[in-house]
Amino acid sequence: MSGSAVSNNNRLSAHIPKHFMTVLVICIVLLGVCVLASLVLGSRPIRFHELIDGLFHPDVDSYGANVVRKRISRTVFSLCCGAALGVSGALMQAVTRNPIADPSILGVNTGASLFVVCGIAFLNISSANQYIWLALAGAAITAVFVYGIGSMGRGGATPIKLVLAGAATSAALASLVSAIMIPRSYVMDQFRFWQVGSVGSASWDAIATFSPFLIVGILGGFLTAPALNALALGDDAATGLGVRTGTLRLIAALAGVLLCGATTALAGPIGFVGLLSTHVMRLILGPDLRFVIPMSAISGAIILTVSDVCGRLIGSPGELEVGVVTAFLGAPILILLAMRSKVRSL
User: Fold this and answer.
1) How far is the C-alpha of 30 from the C-alpha of 35, rounded, in Å?
2) Which of 146, 178, 327, 345 lies most in the core, judged by the most C-beta atoms within 10 Å?
3) Which residues, including other chains, have CB under 8 Å from residue 148's CB and lie 6 or more apart?
4) Which residues contact 229 (CB under 8 A, 6 or more apart)?
């Protein structure tokens, strides 16, 4: 990726997409509504004065104020994870030129899960810092493996071949996860709640651990967006515009895996957020990744936070894990996308 490539690509798509500012304002308003809903809704609804006490009066030690303070970290964590998954989905779709690529569909989440469960079973790990590095290694190895398998044969890495390779790999890795857990009850107890995907155990320590990976991954996505636009024209055209396609794919893929792996390590394998957020933004704004990637971050944060609130309301007085809710939302979207005849490549 070079400066000439970026400038050439900017000339190709220099205009701001239609309705971009309108969509941005609507998304920001929705994000604010989601934050408010996440703070006040749940098994224990919060009154207005309790919300004010929890936000602005740290000396107040009432039950409602303490609930708000607990929900603040959960809300921030949910926003961060949703943004990470949204950007990760956009990058994976761009790198593979596959409009239905997503960390869960390509098996990346399951690869991260396998490495985490191996760490719990064989290395006795228990901290978020250890989870992250194992999850990143598992996500990276799985992503390379799935892309390699999907690239074999005639036509290279077509969307359908990548999805099939991802589904097969995910099924195989999930079987390995079960084989490791079943004879080890202590591993199952530690792993089963994490495996579903949840932001309920959020803490400021987890957010601090996650933040460097989030910042680096999102910056990588933003910086590669102009050149990824050129890559959508095909490798030959992108090379003619000065893009080093191999280096570009490596950087963008690393950013996507970094975001997905870190999220999976701390929140579990939450699926379909990247697929749904990126697809909606691409339908509204068009294919320009300079706008799709940042808007996917915002829409991903909205989707995951809404799903978390819905899980709390549906499962009250307990809660339904957010990974279950996003699966219910994302599975019909995936089916509709797969049925469309134009799902070939980006």
Assistant:
1) 9
2) 146
3) none
4) 9, 12, 13, 287, 288, 289, 290
Helices 20-40, 48-56: crossing angle, 10 deg rounding: 100
pLDDT tens digits, 190-203: 666 566 667 877 78
| Contact status, residue 98 vs residue 256, Cβ threshold 8 Å | no
Rounded to an integer, what distance in angstroms lies between the CA atom of residue 324 and that of residue 337?
20
Distances (CA, A) of 145 to 25, 49, 152, 331: 40, 53, 11, 24
- Sequence ranges of the domains in the chain: 3-339
200 to 83, 111, 177: CA distances (angstroms): 17, 22, 23
Burial 201-239 (b: 16+ CB within 10 A, else e): ebeeebbebbeebbeebbebbbebbbbbbbbbeeeeebe
Low-confidence ranges of the chain (pLDDT < 70): 1-14, 155-159, 186-187, 189-197, 235, 334, 337-346
**274-331 pLDDT, tens digit each:** 888 998 898 888 888 999 999 999 999 999 999 999 988 887 777 788 888 888 877 7
Q: How far is it, in rounded angstroms, from Cα 259 to Cα 277?
A: 15
Neighbours of 152 (CB within 10 A): 11
Say how far apart CA 184 and CA 83 lie, in whole Å.
34
* Gap between the Cα atoms of 147 and 105, Å rounded: 12
The one-letter amino acid at 203: S
The DSSP 8-state label assigned to residue 243 in this structure reads -
- Cα(262)–Cα(277) distance, rounded to whole angstroms? 19
Q: What superfamily would CATH give domain 3-339?
A: ABC transporter involved in vitamin B12 uptake, BtuC (1.10.3470.10)
In a 10 Å sphere around its CB, with 0-12 CB exposed, 13-18 middle and 19+ buried, how is residue 18 labelled? exposed
With vertex at residue 123, the alpha carbon angle to CA 120 and CA 127, rounded to the nearest 5 degrees, is 60
Report residue 286 as tokens.
Answer: 């068009």
Q: In the structure encoding, which two tokens stand for residue 157, read together?
A: 């890495």
| Cβ-based neighbours of 336, under 8 Å, separated by 6 or more | none
Residue type, 163: V
